[in-house]
Amino acid sequence: FAGIPAASAGFHMGFRFYPLQAGDVYSLRILEYLLLEGETSRLRNRLLRRDLTARYLSGALEERLSVSALKVFCLNTNAVMAERSQKAILSEIDKLRTNPVSQDEMAKAKRLFKMDYLRSQSTNLGRALFLLDAVFSGKPRNALGAELDNYLRVSPPALTAFVNKYFIPQNRVVLEIGPQ
Fold first, then answer.
1. Quick one: CA torsion of 143, 110, 18, 14, rounded to 10 degrees?
2. 47: which of 3, 13, 54, 76 fits an S-S bond (Cβ 3.0–4.6 Å)?
3. Which residues have CB under 8 Å from 30's CB, separation 6+?
4. What are the pLDDT digits (tens) for 74-129?
5. The model's pTM
């Protein structure tokens, strides 16, 4: 934990995933969509609608070479709400650890992912960036067509296993921001 002085309270929470086992990247990407993508994602719903502990929430999965990180940025009105938001995020992750994701929620996350994936392939720039990512990650060219199917094959037990394996305190970093 580290602190930075600022006019408003908030935090930046990150989870690193290294080294990822074969196939774990697919679970991680679907997990990103469950937690952060879309207006009805778990964290948006919990922090911005249900608990009303956050004023702003963003997050994304960042991949660089063989290291991946899930980053969450949250702005709050005060330090108490920032602490409650952190606890709510960890609570949602613990729910994934113990309760399997429903088929409806999995289908929604996969639909959102598929829509974004196909949208990225619909332009020349998108296809070029996809090919560059594939070259730099060392994926064989003949496996690129099956990439979408691998993401869509992720199951609720695979997500539970992923969360249990990688979402541990040693992989978490929190940078708190706020008034001194």
1. 150
2. 54
3. 106, 109, 110, 113, 151, 154, 159
4. 999 889 999 999 999 999 999 999 999 999 999 999 999 999 888 888 889 988 88
5. 0.86
- Ramachandran category for residue 158: left, alpha or beta (phi over 0 → left; psi -120 to 50 → alpha): alpha
Distance CA 56, CA 135 (A): 36
- Amino acid identity of residue 30, one-letter, is I
Cα Rg of the chain, angstroms: 17
Q: How far is CA 165 from the centre of its chain?
A: 15
Could you give the CA distance from residue 59 to residue 101 in angstroms, rounded to a whole number?
20
Q: What length is written for the chain? A: 180
Question: Taking a C-beta distance cutoff of 8 angstroms, is the pair 36, 59 a contact?
Answer: yes
Residues 128 and 22: their CA atoms lie apart, in Å, by 24
SS3 sequence, the chain?
Answer: CEEEECCCEEEEEEEEECCCCCCHHHHHHHHHHHHCCCCCCHHHHHHHHHCCCCCEEEEEEEEECCEEEEEEEEEECCHHHHHHHHHHHHHHHHHHHHCCCCHHHHHHHHHHHHHHHHHHCCCHHHHHHHHHHHHHHCCCHHHHHHHHHHHHCCCHHHHHHHHHHHCCHHHEEEEEEECC
